[in-house]
Amino acid sequence: MYKIIRKEELAPSVKLFEVEAPLIARKARPGQFVILRIAEEGERIPLTIADFDREKGSIVLIFQEVGATTRQLGQLNAGDGIQDLVGPLGRPTHIERFGTVVCIGGGIGIAPVYPIARGMKEAGNTVISIIGARTEGLLIYEREMAAVSDELLVATDDGSRGLKGFVTDALRQVVDRGTKIDLVVAIGPVIMMKNVAEATRPLGIHTVVSLNPIMVDGTGMCGGCRVAVGNEIKFACVDGPEFDAHLVDFKGLIARQRMYLPQEKIALEHEEHRGGACRCQGT
Ligand code: FES
Question: Is 216 a pocket residue for ligand 1 (Cβ < 6 Å)?
Answer without folding.
Answer: yes
